[in-house]
């Protein structure tokens, strides 16, 4: 079976040509990196954090992350850490995934080993209704045009039912057991502000306060401290939807020998629309 796209024609175009055009425009956007990736693959990247909103909003921020991926050494497996906006428990998918750019193969050996050696279970229904991983995939294909047939993904929904330290440990042991060269992609938007999101901690200087709130989270991410990052989101009630994927990424990155975390770019949807009544923060972050 193949997991069918649910975000095509809403978060991104469902037409191959239109999708390719929009992603190109994300790279050239004034909010994007301003250029397409170079062809030389000499960077070492352990993981990235990338947003998952509609491409007209978060796409330029995603482009920063995927430019780094396109210029990095190609891994055996991309471990895709998503979340469940519907509140489903942690689970993984064993299906291949379809986008307008074609089929992406699942690293089934990795996923089956992870099931055997953890408490994670397969749940295709949970993945079928969730967009946080799907929205990463067209960018992943675009960034790896030179290796399309070699792309393998391990899609995992991370929820609070499994502690982020335990989940990171399960994944790390599976990486070791399967001898995979892995790159981890954590899918998350940052602060969701406004009545639409039920989060109104401030009413004045919204842009400045959003930047400040998310900067506090980014600073803790840069220190590779998952515990303090989660404590910060709990204390501030910051509506960072993918806080658990981020926490798993931080724990896993430390196990994989991470030395540095770099903020590639940050902005909010309000910077694009010029309306901060309801706005979402987007950050692109790289771990090396």
Please count the helical segments.
10
CATH-defined architecture: 3-Layer(aba) Sandwich
User: What is the number of E strands?
Assistant: 11
Report the top-level CATH class. Alpha Beta
Give start-end ranges of low-pLDDT stretches.
none
> Outline, from the CA principal axes?
globular
Radius of gyration: 17 Å
How many strands, which pairing sense, and closed or not: the largest β-sheet? 11 strands, mixed
The total domain count is 1
Strand content: 15-25%
CATH fold-level label: Protocatechuate 4,5-dioxygenase, Chain B
Give the secondary structure arrangement, pairings included.
Layout: E1 2-3, H1 16-28, E2 47-50, H2 55-70, E3 77-82, E4 91-92, E5 96-99, E6 102-106, H3 108-116, H4 124-128, H5 137-143, E7 152-157, H6 164-178, E8 182-187, E9 192-193, H7 206-222, H8 226-236, H9 243-255, E10 261-268, H10 269-273, E11 279-287
Helix pairs in contact: 1-2, 2-5, 3-6, 6-9, 7-8, 8-9
Features:
11-stranded mixed sheet; alpha/beta; globular; 288 residues; 39% helix
Notes on the protein architecture:
The structure is a single chain. The model has no long low-confidence stretch (mean pLDDT 98). Strands 1, 2, 3, 4, 5, 6, 7, 8, 9, 10 and 11 form an eleven-stranded mixed β-sheet that branches. The protein is of the alpha/beta class and 288 residues long. 39% of the residues lie in helices and 19% in strands. The longest helix is centred in the last third of the chain and has 17 residues, at 206-222. The chain has a single domain, classed as LigB-like (Protocatechuate 4,5-dioxygenase, Chain B, 3-Layer(aba) Sandwich), CATH 3.40.830.10. The two termini are 35 Å apart.
